[in-house]
Design goal:
Elements lengths: L1 H6 L4 H12 L5 H8 L3 H13 L19 E9 L4 H13 L3 E6 L6 E7 L2 H12 L5 E8 L14
Antiparallel strand pairs: 1-3, 1-4, 2-3
């Protein structure tokens, strides 16, 4: 990763800035400047360059799903009956519009897609599957796995 960043015109100071921002995107430029040993204007310019180049896509607040009422998280594997462009586009468009879907990925292998979904309770999961997923044209099979224990969850990419 370090080599990739360097090949793209970024250096160890940029990597250090990215690591700090991943850990705490609310860190002030003054605190970041102290940690990285650069001036505040230099930090500001580097962050703006990282944003402009698309290395930093956005900043986000990570919420505690239990505190906001989403007691359950599940992974849902989807098998499509057809891989026609119409069915795949309909599925992708529907998935993008479902607020309970945190992530959705098209896959190779046994399943065609994988969704990471949060729900409040069992009845909500039942309704989500029956009324939302089954309503999508081309969905043939749905396999749901409930998360019993979240062992590791991070948004930080390893940059070393």
């Amino acid at each position: 990763m370090k080599k990739l960043l360097q090949e793209s015109g970024f250096d160890d100071l940029d990597r250090a800035i990215l690591e700090e921002l991943q850990a705490n995107c609310q860190i002030s430029n003054a605190d970041l400047a102290r940690k990285i040993h650069l001036s505040q204007p230099a930090i500001h310019n580097r962050i703006k360059r990282l944003e402009k180049k698309g290395v930093i896509q956005r900043y986000a607040a990570i919420l505690d799903r239990d505190v906001v009422g989403y007691e359950w998280m599940c992974f849902i594997h989807i098998t499509m009956s057809s891989h026609s462009p119409e069915h795949m586009e309909a599925f992708e468009a529907a998935a993008r519009e479902m607020p309970e879907v945190l992530e959705c990925h098209r896959l190779s292998g046994e399943y065609d897609a994988l969704m990471k979904v949060v729900i409040r309770h069992r009845e909500e999961l039942d309704q989500f599957i029956k009324n939302r997923l089954n309503a999508i044209a081309g969905v043939a099979r749905i396999h749901t796995s409930l998360v019993l224990n979240e062992i590791k969850a991070t948004t930080e990419l390893p940059l070393k």
